[in-house]
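Researcher: Next entry in the queue.
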Amino acid sequence: MSLLAKLKARAAAGKPVRVGLIGAGKLGSMYLSQAPRTPGIHLVAIADLSPARAHESLNRVGWEPSRAQAKSFKEAARDGTTYITDDAGALIASDEVEIVIDATGSPAAGIHHVLKCCQFGKHVIMVNVEADVLAGPYLARKAAEAGIIYSMASGDQPALIAELVDWARTIGLEVICAGKGTKYLPIYHQSTPDTVWGHYGFTEAQVASGDFNAQMFNSFLDGTKSALEMAAVANGCDLTPPGDGLAFPPCGVDDLPTILRPVADGGILPHKGSVEVVSSLERDGRPVFRDLRWGVYAVFEAPSPYVRDCFAQYGLKTDSTGRYAAMYKPYHLIGLELGISVATIAVRQEATGATGAFRGDVAATAKRALKAGETLDGEGGHTVYGRLMPATASLERGVLPIGLAHHMVLRNDVPAGQPVRWADVAFDASREAVRVRLEMEALFRRELGLAPGKAA
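Model: Structure for this entry, 456 residues:
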């Protein structure tokens, strides 16, 4: 039975899926636009630090005001309406909510919410890739111990990549590389919230619409979001990031199997089973032909001459040898697709992509020469961007993860382009997010046979 049929059955039985959303920003708003149109779904509550902003988001996506006038969780559940609150903890604890969506974008908040979901037995959809990369392998284990589902968010690129990887492996194909497209030039690593809109080409009217956050959008542009998403894919799909970080090669869809194959076969990959992001721009700024800026892909290898012939017979674009081919999805709709995760968890008890081992990490990397005494301002800010690296390298070098590079004061100078290390910052080990991250690092150091870290 299809997801839709199962949702309709729940609606007919008077047992809709009861959802709580934390964070009514851009992605949360996209889900809000679709939730009322989906049978068998009841958005019981929305938690946002600013309830007024949540109401503004509802107005912007076309909700009738009467749909969000409930005075409590129970009233919302009884009347089929929605309760707006600033108390995310109460939302998670409510008996009226069965699935929680974290769309906050805050690493510390995401970690806290997942641990609360473990405490109260609520399935959780992590739109919050920042939190997932900072502590996802640890949180996934906690969720499994608690008997809840910890899932990637359908519509976001990591979950869609994981779907392609799962498809390929399920039919017996080895995944050589998986990833996504983006708009990239090397200069973007130095972009700040002050320069971001010029790179995007958004008009003042678009920015003034209320859906645009300069630091968030800059995290997409300066490479941080790409690094985070590829770390999430590595951790969710048992892939290993390249040791030198993402290369962002200019590449259109027809060239995926040629460029994203091992160096020994004429490509750029240091090894099979990697992740990479392809750019929609040539290095001189010209557009790439048939680019994949908005999409995702997986490159795989024919395991035999027979399968190689099948690739050719059915029109797959391959490299010159016919061994390597690619499957791709040209677009992703982010929060508009989030309902797939909600439905899959509710009626199939399955995640739409799930974090596993600690394979990839993202280091806070200096955008410019940083001086002792400066305060780091996190993803998409003025001081650091995120650079992908293998988790083993991160642990061995003692790098500070980008998800914690918020409001930390530097103790040492850090040269431009170099990772910030735990030893370079003053930090409070009692903060929940810091404590959880250090516990995760200690756990995987033991499992990988590495020496204890200096941060511990």
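Model: The chain has three domains: 3-155+335-348, 158-184+223-331, 360-448.
Researcher: Noted, moving on.
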